Amino acid sequence: MAGPLEQFEIKPLAELSLGGIDISFTNSALWMVFAAVLVTCFMTLSMRRGALVPGRWQGAAEVMYEFVANMLKDNVGSAGRKYFPFIFTLFMFVMFGNLLGMIPHSFTFTSHIAVNFALALVIFIGVTVIGFMRHGTHYLRMFFPEGAPIATAIILVPIEIISYFSRPFSLAIRLFANMTVGHIMLKVIGGFVGLIGILGVLPFALLTGITVLEFGIAALQAYVFTILTCIYLHDAIHMH
Amino acid sequence: MPQFDIATFSAQIFWLFVIFAVLYVLMSKIALPKVGEVLERRQKTIEDNLGKARALKDETDAAIAKYEAALAEARNAAQADIREASEKAAAEQAKKTEALVKKLSKKTSDAEKAIADAKTEALTGVAEAASEIAREATEKLIGVKVQAKTADKAVSAIVGE
Protein backbone atom coordinates (compact mmCIF):
# COMPACT_ATOMS: atom_id res chain seq x y z
CA MET A 1 0.00 0.00 0.00
CA ALA A 2 1.40 3.34 -1.06
CA GLY A 3 1.96 5.94 1.62
CA PRO A 4 -0.04 9.16 1.56
CA LEU A 5 3.01 11.17 0.48
CA GLU A 6 3.97 8.96 -2.42
CA GLN A 7 1.55 10.74 -4.72
CA PHE A 8 3.69 13.88 -4.43
CA GLU A 9 6.91 12.25 -5.52
CA ILE A 10 8.68 13.78 -8.48
CA LYS A 11 9.67 11.05 -10.92
CA PRO A 12 11.93 11.93 -13.83
CA LEU A 13 10.61 10.62 -17.13
CA ALA A 14 13.58 11.85 -19.18
CA GLU A 15 16.84 12.83 -17.56
CA LEU A 16 18.02 16.20 -18.85
CA SER A 17 20.47 18.75 -17.61
CA LEU A 18 21.54 22.19 -18.71
CA GLY A 19 24.90 23.56 -17.62
CA GLY A 20 25.01 21.12 -14.74
CA ILE A 21 21.50 22.04 -13.58
CA ASP A 22 18.93 19.27 -13.53
CA ILE A 23 16.05 20.04 -15.87
CA SER A 24 14.65 16.52 -16.24
CA PHE A 25 11.23 16.17 -17.74
CA THR A 26 9.27 14.82 -14.79
CA ASN A 27 5.74 13.72 -14.03
CA SER A 28 5.19 17.28 -12.78
CA ALA A 29 6.17 18.67 -16.18
CA LEU A 30 4.01 16.06 -17.92
CA TRP A 31 0.92 17.16 -16.03
CA MET A 32 1.78 20.80 -16.71
CA VAL A 33 1.80 19.88 -20.39
CA PHE A 34 -1.57 18.16 -19.99
CA ALA A 35 -2.97 21.25 -18.29
CA ALA A 36 -1.60 23.58 -20.97
CA VAL A 37 -2.87 21.35 -23.80
CA LEU A 38 -6.31 21.04 -22.21
CA VAL A 39 -6.57 24.79 -21.63
CA THR A 40 -5.49 25.46 -25.19
CA CYS A 41 -7.89 22.91 -26.66
CA PHE A 42 -10.71 24.19 -24.49
CA MET A 43 -10.14 27.80 -25.45
CA THR A 44 -9.52 27.25 -29.16
CA LEU A 45 -11.62 24.25 -30.23
CA SER A 46 -14.69 25.54 -28.45
CA MET A 47 -14.29 28.92 -30.15
CA ARG A 48 -13.57 27.39 -33.54
CA ARG A 49 -16.93 28.34 -35.02
CA GLY A 50 -17.07 31.66 -33.21
CA ALA A 51 -20.83 31.49 -33.44
CA LEU A 52 -22.99 34.49 -32.70
CA VAL A 53 -25.21 32.30 -30.56
CA PRO A 54 -22.75 30.16 -28.59
CA GLY A 55 -23.12 26.45 -28.12
CA ARG A 56 -22.36 24.65 -24.86
CA TRP A 57 -18.58 24.55 -25.22
CA GLN A 58 -18.27 28.02 -26.66
CA GLY A 59 -20.50 29.31 -23.88
CA ALA A 60 -18.20 27.71 -21.30
CA ALA A 61 -15.08 29.26 -22.88
CA GLU A 62 -16.77 32.65 -22.99
CA VAL A 63 -17.82 32.32 -19.36
CA MET A 64 -14.21 31.71 -18.34
CA TYR A 65 -13.06 34.69 -20.40
CA GLU A 66 -15.66 37.01 -18.96
CA PHE A 67 -15.19 35.69 -15.44
CA VAL A 68 -11.49 36.55 -15.47
CA ALA A 69 -12.07 39.80 -17.37
CA ASN A 70 -14.62 40.94 -14.79
CA MET A 71 -12.38 39.88 -11.92
CA LEU A 72 -9.61 42.01 -13.39
CA LYS A 73 -11.91 44.94 -14.12
CA ASP A 74 -13.50 44.91 -10.66
CA ASN A 75 -10.18 44.70 -8.83
CA VAL A 76 -7.78 46.66 -11.01
CA GLY A 77 -9.96 48.73 -13.31
CA SER A 78 -9.33 49.53 -16.95
CA ALA A 79 -5.58 50.05 -16.32
CA GLY A 80 -5.31 46.29 -15.80
CA ARG A 81 -6.51 45.40 -19.29
CA LYS A 82 -3.07 44.79 -20.71
CA TYR A 83 -2.33 42.22 -18.01
CA PHE A 84 -5.45 40.25 -18.89
CA PRO A 85 -3.67 37.52 -20.92
CA PHE A 86 -1.31 36.89 -18.02
CA ILE A 87 -4.06 36.80 -15.41
CA PHE A 88 -6.15 34.55 -17.61
CA THR A 89 -3.27 32.15 -18.28
CA LEU A 90 -2.48 32.10 -14.57
CA PHE A 91 -6.06 31.32 -13.56
CA MET A 92 -6.57 28.61 -16.16
CA PHE A 93 -3.18 27.01 -15.56
CA VAL A 94 -3.63 26.84 -11.80
CA MET A 95 -7.25 25.73 -12.00
CA PHE A 96 -6.58 23.00 -14.55
CA GLY A 97 -3.55 21.92 -12.53
CA ASN A 98 -5.72 21.65 -9.41
CA LEU A 99 -8.56 19.87 -11.21
CA LEU A 100 -6.31 17.43 -13.07
CA GLY A 101 -4.91 16.52 -9.67
CA MET A 102 -8.33 15.15 -8.79
CA ILE A 103 -7.90 12.33 -11.32
CA PRO A 104 -6.80 9.22 -9.43
CA HIS A 105 -3.11 8.39 -9.93
CA SER A 106 -2.49 11.73 -11.55
CA PHE A 107 -0.04 14.31 -10.28
CA THR A 108 -0.91 17.69 -8.81
CA PHE A 109 1.87 20.10 -9.76
CA THR A 110 0.23 22.88 -7.74
CA SER A 111 0.77 20.83 -4.59
CA HIS A 112 4.48 21.62 -4.88
CA ILE A 113 5.86 24.61 -3.09
CA ALA A 114 8.59 25.09 -5.72
CA VAL A 115 6.04 25.58 -8.52
CA ASN A 116 3.77 27.82 -6.48
CA PHE A 117 6.58 29.87 -5.09
CA ALA A 118 8.12 30.36 -8.53
CA LEU A 119 4.76 31.61 -9.82
CA ALA A 120 4.26 33.81 -6.77
CA LEU A 121 7.76 35.22 -7.07
CA VAL A 122 7.23 36.11 -10.73
CA ILE A 123 3.99 37.86 -9.75
CA PHE A 124 5.66 39.60 -6.81
CA ILE A 125 8.60 40.85 -8.86
CA GLY A 126 6.38 41.79 -11.79
CA VAL A 127 3.99 43.75 -9.58
CA THR A 128 6.86 45.53 -7.84
CA VAL A 129 8.43 46.48 -11.17
CA ILE A 130 5.06 47.78 -12.43
CA GLY A 131 4.70 49.79 -9.23
CA PHE A 132 8.09 51.44 -9.57
CA MET A 133 7.59 52.04 -13.29
CA ARG A 134 4.28 53.82 -12.72
CA HIS A 135 5.13 55.74 -9.57
CA GLY A 136 8.93 55.89 -9.41
CA THR A 137 10.29 56.28 -5.91
CA HIS A 138 6.84 57.42 -4.80
CA TYR A 139 6.00 53.70 -4.82
CA LEU A 140 7.96 53.48 -1.57
CA ARG A 141 4.97 55.28 -0.07
CA MET A 142 3.41 51.81 -0.04
CA PHE A 143 5.37 51.28 3.17
CA PHE A 144 4.16 54.41 4.87
CA PRO A 145 0.57 55.40 4.16
CA GLU A 146 -0.19 59.01 3.32
CA GLY A 147 -1.56 61.04 6.24
CA ALA A 148 -0.22 58.81 9.01
CA PRO A 149 1.55 60.73 11.80
CA ILE A 150 5.32 60.68 11.32
CA ALA A 151 5.82 59.27 14.80
CA THR A 152 4.05 56.06 13.82
CA ALA A 153 6.61 55.43 11.07
CA ILE A 154 8.78 53.40 13.37
CA ILE A 155 5.99 50.86 13.77
CA LEU A 156 4.13 51.19 10.49
CA VAL A 157 7.06 50.98 8.10
CA PRO A 158 8.37 47.61 9.38
CA ILE A 159 4.83 46.22 9.43
CA GLU A 160 4.14 47.34 5.88
CA ILE A 161 7.49 46.01 4.69
CA ILE A 162 6.89 42.66 6.30
CA SER A 163 3.37 42.45 4.92
CA TYR A 164 4.59 43.40 1.46
CA PHE A 165 7.37 40.85 1.41
CA SER A 166 5.22 38.10 2.84
CA ARG A 167 2.92 38.28 -0.17
CA PRO A 168 4.70 35.68 -2.32
CA PHE A 169 4.96 33.34 0.67
CA SER A 170 1.29 33.57 1.57
CA LEU A 171 0.35 33.18 -2.08
CA ALA A 172 2.53 30.10 -2.57
CA ILE A 173 1.95 28.40 0.78
CA ARG A 174 -1.83 28.83 0.69
CA LEU A 175 -2.14 26.93 -2.58
CA PHE A 176 0.47 24.34 -1.61
CA ALA A 177 -1.14 23.67 1.76
CA ASN A 178 -4.66 23.40 0.38
CA MET A 179 -3.71 21.02 -2.39
CA THR A 180 -1.37 18.89 -0.29
CA VAL A 181 -3.66 18.52 2.71
CA GLY A 182 -6.66 17.70 0.56
CA HIS A 183 -4.82 14.97 -1.28
CA ILE A 184 -3.31 13.49 1.86
CA MET A 185 -6.74 13.43 3.48
CA LEU A 186 -8.28 11.66 0.48
CA LYS A 187 -5.45 9.13 0.48
CA VAL A 188 -5.60 8.41 4.22
CA ILE A 189 -9.38 8.07 4.35
CA GLY A 190 -9.25 6.03 1.15
CA GLY A 191 -6.83 3.66 2.89
CA PHE A 192 -9.44 2.87 5.53
CA VAL A 193 -12.07 1.81 3.03
CA GLY A 194 -10.44 -1.53 2.24
CA LEU A 195 -9.06 -2.14 5.73
CA ILE A 196 -12.20 -2.34 7.84
CA GLY A 197 -14.36 -4.66 5.78
CA ILE A 198 -18.07 -3.93 5.52
CA LEU A 199 -17.68 -0.87 7.76
CA GLY A 200 -15.66 0.57 4.92
CA VAL A 201 -18.84 2.11 3.55
CA LEU A 202 -18.52 4.81 6.21
CA PRO A 203 -15.12 6.16 5.15
CA PHE A 204 -16.26 5.63 1.57
CA ALA A 205 -19.23 7.92 2.10
CA LEU A 206 -16.95 10.43 3.79
CA LEU A 207 -14.53 10.11 0.90
CA THR A 208 -17.31 10.91 -1.57
CA GLY A 209 -18.20 14.07 0.31
CA ILE A 210 -14.58 15.17 0.62
CA THR A 211 -14.01 14.54 -3.08
CA VAL A 212 -16.83 16.95 -3.91
CA LEU A 213 -15.34 19.42 -1.44
CA GLU A 214 -11.89 19.00 -3.02
CA PHE A 215 -13.27 19.85 -6.45
CA GLY A 216 -14.67 23.02 -4.96
CA ILE A 217 -11.35 23.79 -3.30
CA ALA A 218 -9.50 23.16 -6.57
CA ALA A 219 -11.53 25.87 -8.30
CA LEU A 220 -11.65 28.16 -5.28
CA GLN A 221 -7.90 28.14 -4.67
CA ALA A 222 -7.24 28.98 -8.32
CA TYR A 223 -9.67 31.86 -7.87
CA VAL A 224 -8.01 33.01 -4.65
CA PHE A 225 -4.56 32.82 -6.22
CA THR A 226 -5.74 34.91 -9.16
CA ILE A 227 -7.73 37.46 -7.22
CA LEU A 228 -4.83 38.08 -4.84
CA THR A 229 -2.66 38.69 -7.89
CA CYS A 230 -5.27 41.18 -9.10
CA ILE A 231 -5.26 42.93 -5.72
CA TYR A 232 -1.45 43.20 -5.74
CA LEU A 233 -1.69 44.55 -9.26
CA HIS A 234 -4.23 47.09 -8.08
CA ASP A 235 -1.89 48.24 -5.32
CA ALA A 236 0.94 48.60 -7.82
CA ILE A 237 -1.16 50.64 -10.25
CA HIS A 238 -3.27 52.73 -7.89
CA MET A 239 -1.19 52.44 -4.67
CA HIS A 240 -3.41 52.15 -1.60
CA MET B 1 7.89 15.18 2.18
CA PRO B 2 8.69 15.25 -1.55
CA GLN B 3 7.71 18.93 -1.66
CA PHE B 4 10.81 19.86 0.33
CA ASP B 5 13.26 17.87 -1.77
CA ILE B 6 15.33 20.76 -3.09
CA ALA B 7 16.98 18.56 -5.72
CA THR B 8 13.75 18.50 -7.71
CA PHE B 9 13.19 22.28 -7.68
CA SER B 10 15.25 23.23 -10.71
CA ALA B 11 13.51 20.76 -13.00
CA GLN B 12 10.05 21.76 -11.75
CA ILE B 13 10.68 25.47 -12.08
CA PHE B 14 12.36 25.15 -15.47
CA TRP B 15 9.42 23.29 -16.98
CA LEU B 16 6.94 25.56 -15.21
CA PHE B 17 8.45 28.57 -16.93
CA VAL B 18 8.67 26.87 -20.31
CA ILE B 19 5.12 25.52 -20.27
CA PHE B 20 3.60 28.62 -18.70
CA ALA B 21 5.34 30.82 -21.28
CA VAL B 22 4.06 28.66 -24.14
CA LEU B 23 0.55 28.71 -22.70
CA TYR B 24 0.77 32.49 -22.23
CA VAL B 25 1.75 32.96 -25.88
CA LEU B 26 -1.02 30.61 -27.08
CA MET B 27 -3.59 32.43 -24.96
CA SER B 28 -2.51 35.98 -25.72
CA LYS B 29 -1.87 35.49 -29.44
CA ILE B 30 -4.49 32.95 -30.49
CA ALA B 31 -7.19 32.03 -27.99
CA LEU B 32 -8.06 35.27 -26.23
CA PRO B 33 -8.17 37.59 -29.28
CA LYS B 34 -10.61 35.16 -30.88
CA VAL B 35 -12.90 35.16 -27.84
CA GLY B 36 -12.67 38.93 -27.58
CA GLU B 37 -13.50 39.30 -31.24
CA VAL B 38 -16.52 36.99 -30.97
CA LEU B 39 -17.80 38.81 -27.90
CA GLU B 40 -17.28 42.18 -29.56
CA ARG B 41 -19.05 41.05 -32.70
CA ARG B 42 -21.95 39.74 -30.66
CA GLN B 43 -22.15 43.03 -28.77
CA LYS B 44 -22.11 44.91 -32.05
CA THR B 45 -24.76 42.66 -33.59
CA ILE B 46 -26.99 43.10 -30.57
CA GLU B 47 -26.54 46.86 -30.70
CA ASP B 48 -27.21 46.89 -34.44
CA ASN B 49 -30.34 44.83 -33.99
CA LEU B 50 -31.48 47.03 -31.14
CA GLY B 51 -30.92 50.08 -33.32
CA LYS B 52 -32.84 48.43 -36.14
CA ALA B 53 -35.63 47.51 -33.78
CA ARG B 54 -35.72 51.05 -32.47
CA ALA B 55 -35.91 52.43 -36.02
CA LEU B 56 -38.71 50.00 -36.86
CA LYS B 57 -40.54 50.95 -33.71
CA ASP B 58 -40.25 54.63 -34.60
CA GLU B 59 -41.55 53.82 -38.06
CA THR B 60 -44.43 51.87 -36.56
CA ASP B 61 -45.22 54.69 -34.17
CA ALA B 62 -45.25 57.14 -37.04
CA ALA B 63 -47.55 54.86 -39.05
CA ILE B 64 -49.85 54.49 -36.05
CA ALA B 65 -49.95 58.25 -35.54
CA LYS B 66 -50.67 58.74 -39.21
CA TYR B 67 -53.41 56.13 -39.11
CA GLU B 68 -54.93 57.71 -36.04
CA ALA B 69 -54.85 61.14 -37.63
CA ALA B 70 -56.53 59.75 -40.73
CA LEU B 71 -59.08 58.00 -38.55
CA ALA B 72 -59.83 61.18 -36.62
CA GLU B 73 -60.13 63.12 -39.85
CA ALA B 74 -62.50 60.55 -41.29
CA ARG B 75 -64.52 60.61 -38.10
CA ASN B 76 -64.76 64.38 -38.21
CA ALA B 77 -65.74 64.31 -41.88
CA ALA B 78 -68.37 61.67 -41.18
CA GLN B 79 -69.73 63.67 -38.29
CA ALA B 80 -69.88 66.79 -40.45
CA ASP B 81 -71.72 64.80 -43.11
CA ILE B 82 -74.14 63.46 -40.55
CA ARG B 83 -74.74 66.91 -39.12
CA GLU B 84 -75.29 68.38 -42.57
CA ALA B 85 -77.63 65.57 -43.56
CA SER B 86 -79.61 65.82 -40.36
CA GLU B 87 -79.84 69.58 -40.69
CA LYS B 88 -81.03 69.21 -44.27
CA ALA B 89 -83.52 66.59 -43.22
CA ALA B 90 -84.73 68.77 -40.39
CA ALA B 91 -85.07 71.76 -42.71
CA GLU B 92 -86.97 69.70 -45.24
CA GLN B 93 -89.14 68.31 -42.54
CA ALA B 94 -89.88 71.80 -41.27
CA LYS B 95 -90.71 72.95 -44.79
CA LYS B 96 -92.99 70.00 -45.35
CA THR B 97 -94.69 70.56 -42.01
CA GLU B 98 -95.17 74.22 -42.84
CA ALA B 99 -96.62 73.36 -46.24
CA LEU B 100 -98.91 70.83 -44.68
CA VAL B 101 -99.99 73.28 -42.01
CA LYS B 102 -100.61 75.88 -44.70
CA LYS B 103 -102.55 73.41 -46.79
CA LEU B 104 -104.60 72.27 -43.83
CA SER B 105 -105.32 75.78 -42.68
CA LYS B 106 -106.34 76.69 -46.22
CA LYS B 107 -108.63 73.68 -46.30
CA THR B 108 -110.01 74.69 -42.93
CA SER B 109 -110.61 78.22 -43.98
CA ASP B 110 -112.14 77.05 -47.31
CA ALA B 111 -114.37 74.73 -45.40
CA GLU B 112 -115.32 77.47 -42.97
CA LYS B 113 -116.05 79.79 -45.84
CA ALA B 114 -118.13 77.13 -47.57
CA ILE B 115 -119.99 76.54 -44.35
CA ALA B 116 -120.54 80.29 -43.93
CA ASP B 117 -121.71 80.60 -47.54
CA ALA B 118 -123.96 77.66 -47.15
CA LYS B 119 -125.28 79.12 -43.92
CA THR B 120 -125.88 82.54 -45.54
CA GLU B 121 -127.49 80.90 -48.53
CA ALA B 122 -129.60 78.77 -46.31
CA LEU B 123 -130.62 81.73 -44.22
CA THR B 124 -131.39 83.75 -47.33
CA GLY B 125 -133.46 80.83 -48.63
CA VAL B 126 -135.25 80.59 -45.31
CA ALA B 127 -136.02 84.31 -45.32
CA GLU B 128 -137.27 84.21 -48.89
CA ALA B 129 -139.32 81.20 -48.16
CA ALA B 130 -140.61 82.82 -45.00
CA SER B 131 -141.60 86.03 -46.78
CA GLU B 132 -143.25 83.99 -49.56
CA ILE B 133 -145.12 81.93 -47.01
CA ALA B 134 -145.99 85.06 -45.09
CA ARG B 135 -147.35 86.81 -48.22
CA GLU B 136 -149.33 83.77 -49.31
CA ALA B 137 -150.61 83.22 -45.81
CA THR B 138 -151.65 86.86 -45.47
CA GLU B 139 -153.43 86.76 -48.86
CA LYS B 140 -155.24 83.61 -48.04
CA LEU B 141 -156.14 84.62 -44.56
CA ILE B 142 -157.03 88.22 -44.96
CA GLY B 143 -156.94 88.66 -48.73
CA VAL B 144 -154.45 91.46 -48.50
CA LYS B 145 -151.75 91.37 -51.07
CA VAL B 146 -148.60 92.25 -49.30
CA GLN B 147 -145.87 93.49 -51.41
CA ALA B 148 -142.76 91.31 -51.56
CA LYS B 149 -140.61 94.11 -50.28
CA THR B 150 -142.66 94.69 -47.18
CA ALA B 151 -142.77 90.99 -46.44
CA ASP B 152 -139.02 90.68 -46.80
CA LYS B 153 -138.54 93.55 -44.44
CA ALA B 154 -140.83 92.05 -41.87
CA VAL B 155 -139.15 88.62 -42.14
CA SER B 156 -135.67 89.99 -41.94
CA ALA B 157 -136.70 92.04 -38.95
CA ILE B 158 -137.78 88.91 -37.18
CA VAL B 159 -134.83 86.74 -38.39
CA GLY B 160 -132.43 89.51 -37.77
CA GLU B 161 -133.43 89.68 -34.09
UniProtKB/TrEMBL annotation, chain A:
GO terms for cellular component: plasma membrane; proton-transporting ATP synthase complex. Keywords: ATP synthesis, Cell membrane, CF(0), Hydrogen ion transport, Ion transport, Membrane, Transmembrane, Transmembrane helix, Transport. The keyword Transmembrane helix applies. The chain crosses the membrane at residues 28-47, 83-103, 109-133, 184-206, 212-233. It is found in: Cell membrane; Membrane. Coiled coil: none annotated. It comes from the Bacteria. InterPro entries: ATP_synth_F0_asu, ATP_synth_F0_asu_AS, ATP_synth_F0_asu_bact/mt, F0_ATP_A_sf. It is a multi-pass membrane protein. One of its GO terms (molecular function) is proton-transporting ATP synthase activity, rotational mechanism. Belongs to the ATPase A chain family. Key component of the proton channel; it plays a direct role in the translocation of protons across the membrane. This is ATP synthase subunit a. The gene is atpB.
Automatic annotation (TrEMBL), chain B:
One of its GO terms (cellular component) is proton-transporting ATP synthase complex. The keyword Nucleotidyltransferase does not apply. InterPro entries: ATP_synth_b/b'su_bac/chlpt (IPR002146), ATP_synthase_B_chain (IPR050059). Residues 57-121 form a coiled coil. One of its GO terms (molecular function) is proton-transporting ATP synthase activity, rotational mechanism. Its main location: membrane. It comes from the Bacteria. The chain crosses the membrane at residues 6-26. HAMAP family: ATP_synth_b_bprime. Belongs to the ATPase B chain family. F(1)F(0) ATP synthase produces ATP from ADP in the presence of a proton or sodium gradient. F-type ATPases consist of two structural domains, F(1) containing the extramembraneous catalytic core and F(0) containing the membrane proton channel, linked together by a central stalk and a peripheral stalk. During catalysis, ATP synthesis in the catalytic domain of F(1) is coupled via a rotary mechanism of the central stalk subunits to proton translocation. Component of the F(0) channel, it forms part of the peripheral stalk, linking F(1) to F(0). The b'-subunit is a diverged and duplicated form of b found in plants and photosynthetic bacteria. This is ATP synthase subunit b. It comes from Thalassospira profundimaris. The lineage of its organism: Bacteria, Pseudomonadati, Pseudomonadota, Alphaproteobacteria, Rhodospirillales. The gene is atpF.
